[in-house]
């Protein structure tokens, strides 16, 4: 039996400095309706809004898997999320 599960989820980890020590933490997972830049960036924002009210102001970099949906110059996830 061939069973396919077509559910897209975004996992989010953050790396930050706390008292001079670099730390990485898993902060959330969220299902996305569609695996496009708009839906993925909305999922990232929703997860981060639960973590911190001012995360957008503190964001320095965003690492991805390098796919076009993430890195497209005009409307990729990095670009959309950086407009916060």
TrEMBL record:
- The name under which this protein is listed is Late endosomal/lysosomal adaptor and MAPK and MTOR activator 5
Name the species this protein comes from: Crenichthys baileyi (White River springfish)
